[in-house]
TrEMBL record:
<dbReference type="InterPro" id="IPR036388">
    <property type="entry name" value="WH-like_DNA-bd_sf"/>
</dbReference>
<dbReference type="InterPro" id="IPR039422">
    <property type="entry name" value="MarR/SlyA-like"/>
</dbReference>
<feature type="region of interest" description="Disordered">
    <location>
        <begin position="144"/>
        <end position="163"/>
    </location>
</feature>
<dbReference type="Pfam" id="PF01047">
    <property type="entry name" value="MarR"/>
</dbReference>
<feature type="compositionally biased region" description="Polar residues">
    <location>
        <begin position="151"/>
        <end position="163"/>
    </location>
</feature>
<dbReference type="InterPro" id="IPR000835">
    <property type="entry name" value="HTH_MarR-typ"/>
</dbReference>
<dbReference type="GO" id="GO:0006950">
    <property type="term" value="P:response to stress"/>
</dbReference>
<dbReference type="GO" id="GO:0003700">
    <property type="term" value="F:DNA-binding transcription factor activity"/>
</dbReference>
<protein>
    <submittedName>
        <fullName>MarR family transcriptional regulator</fullName>
    </submittedName>
</protein>
<dbReference type="InterPro" id="IPR036390">
    <property type="entry name" value="WH_DNA-bd_sf"/>
</dbReference>
<feature type="domain" description="HTH marR-type">
    <location>
        <begin position="8"/>
        <end position="139"/>
    </location>
</feature>
Length: 163
């Protein structure tokens, strides 16, 4: 049986509110120094390894101009660096620096600690059940994007990022 329009709207509303709650409860102080999404760029770049900006933008499902703003900020702060592509001297690769990797590690630790605190009254089984349901939802959304032929499909690299 298909999901009703009301149930779909309710889930969209809850996901929107979940994003707000996550940002409010799990943000790390140093994230305030970055554009929103900057930590996501670092996480994706850390998982993917050195790459061209156009490829990273596709993985993140964002425009190249949006990624360019992130890259400029992250280069200026020393969290990522550019280097010539050894296979094509005309192209540039971006990569996470040790400073960026350290920031990413601190943010991940802080977020995990914050989530553990927020879920203090949950059982391990409840957390695992929530993880399974969210994973199923993510897979369904990624599959739907792939089947509709959207240009902003979710790549396997972006599916595996731990931010």
């Amino acid at each position: 049986m298909a999901v009703s329009p009301d149930a779909a709207q309710g889930l969209i509303r809850e996901l929107f509110l979940m994003g707000r709650a996550i940002r409010a409860a799990l943000s790390h102080p140093e994230e305030g120094d970055l554009l929103p999404g900057g930590v996501g760029v670092l996480g994706s770049l850390d998982a993917r390894g050195p790459c061209r900006q156009v490829d990273l933008a596709a993985d993140l499902c964002i425009s190249q101009s949006t990624l360019s703003r992130h890259v400029a900020e992250l280069v200026n702060s020393g969290n990522i660096a550019r280097r010539a592509d050894p296979l094509d001297g005309r192209a540039t690769l971006i990569h996470i620096t040790d400073k960026g990797r350290d920031l990413l590690w601190r943010v991940r630790e802080s977020r995990a600690r914050g989530l553990r605190d927020a879920l203090a009254d949950w059982t391990e089984g409840e957390a695992e059940q929530a993880t399974a349901v969210v994973h199923k939802l993510r897979d369904s959304l990624a599959s739907a994007a792939h089947h509709t032929g959207e240009s902003r499909t979710v790549s396997s690299e972006s599916q595996e990022v731990d931010v």
